[in-house]
Design brief:
single chain, 356 residues, alpha+beta, D-amino Acid Aminotransferase, Chain A, domain 1, D-amino Acid Aminotransferase, Chain A, domain 2, ten-stranded mixed β-sheet, eight-stranded mixed β-sheet, 8 helices, 18 strands, binds pyridoxal-5'-phosphate
């Protein structure tokens, strides 16, 4: 019924580009579907959402987001079931997190139902862009930024909320190597680490590059104060299996992004009877556990990669290797479960899928 109450102004592309897609060679995040959504905030309210052909937008040089960083984003995925239904994974969770990001960044909130309807409408229109291949999805990127044309520091009065979509394959083609970072910091208490703020990424690129030069795909961030506690991996939350228990840093600290993938993994694991420990996790115990063999599995959890198996953890010049991926019964079972669920191959027992 909501669909009827929200008006969309839709301008369809005269010619779809979907027939030109080389589905065998999808580069991650470089190809965009036919349409995008744009909704402007002005005069204290959200205006009618528009869907229009994908393309560049004009940007005024004084656009405040470019100077002062009021910019946030989200990421989620849609898949197609064997019956051809479009299934979007837990978009209301993204809507809620988007609101939290808006609040922390001093930006106007978007009602949850409006956010979800915007996603649904765009995905429905571009449903031909959802890949029909295992491991492939339509990645959906909602984002919002400050658009006041004004050089002066205060929260903007005007914003653009936009969504585009990109058909994607696997994010990582191999198990990932992570490096424990003890000098640089992603997020400090009281900062914006819990928000999905663009600037969090801007600040992490340089330290991540230094890690890459040493041969690691990603950093494993530690707490800003002591660097003794493991936090997350920047685009992914971190999960360990130690002595058969699922152990992961708790999200009480506002320095960790509350990932929807990790939350889903925990909820599924709980239903399987796995013991869960969400608590502070020390670097020391992880290194010990990998060394003595009690840590049998470790993976990053995030929308882009879903489950990214970790191959080795670098710490103070040493590499600590995890057991072969083939032996990781929990991660492999979870990976399959999540993929099957998202693709409508098994029952949606948690009610996580929204049909577009
Ligand atoms: C998006 C993101 C994640 C993963 O969250 P999901 O909701 O699972 O995609 C983890 N850490 C950071 C910093 C992120 O931005």
């Amino acid at each position: 019924m909501l669909e009827q109450t929200i008006n969309f102004k839709i301008t369809q592309t005269p010619e779809s580009r979907v027939t030109q897609v080389d589905w065998e060679n999808l580069p991650f995040g470089r190809l965009f579907s036919d349409h995008m959504l744009l909704m402007e905030y002005s005069n204290g309210e959200w205006q009618t959402p528009e869907i229009l052909p994908f393309g560049p937008i004009p940007v005024h040089p004084a656009t405040s987001a470019l100077h002062y960083g009021q910019a946030i984003f989200e990421g989620m995925k849609a898949n197609k079931s064997p019956e051809g239904d479009v299934l979007i994974f837990r978009p209301e969770m993204n809507a809620k997190r988007f609101q939290e990001s808006c609040e922390r960044m001093g930006m106007p909130l978007i009602p949850e139902t409006l956010f979800v309807e915007c996603v649904r409408k765009l995905v429905d229109l571009d449903r031909e862009w959802i890949p029909n291949k295992p491991g492939y999805s339509l990645y959906i990127r909602p984002f919002m930024f400050a658009t006041d044309e004004f050089v002066g520091i205060r929260p903007s009065d005007n914003y653009k909320f936009m969504i585009f979509a990109s058909p994607v394959g696997a994010y990582y083609s191999e198990p990932v190597n992570v490096l424990i970072e003890e000098h640089y910091t992603r997020a400090a208490e009281g900062g914006v680490g819990r928000a999905k703020a663009a600037g969090n990424y801007g600040a992490s690129l340089y330290p991540a590059k230094l890690g890459q030069l040493k041969g690691y795909h990603q950093l494993l961030w530690t707490d800003a104060k002591t660097h003794e506690f493991v936090e997350e991996s920047g685009t992914m939350n971190i999960v360990f299996i130690i002595d058969g228990k699922l152990i992961t840093p708790s999200e009480e600290s506002d320095t960790i992004l509350r990932g929807i993938t990790k939350r889903s993994v925990i909820e599924v694991a709980q239903s399987w009877g796995i013991q869960i420990e969400e608590r502070k996790v020390t670097v020391k115990e992880i290194i010990e556990a990998v060394k003595n063999g009690s840590c049998t599995e470790a993976f990053g959890a995030g929308t882009a990669a879903t489950i990214a198996h970790i191959n080795k953890i670098g710490f103070r010049g040493e590499d600590y290797y995890l057991p072969a991926v083939e032996s990781r019964s929990f991660s492999l079972k979870m990976e399959k479960y999540m993929n099957d669920l998202k693709n409508g191959l098994i029952e949606d027992e948690f009610g996580w899928l929204l049909k577009a």
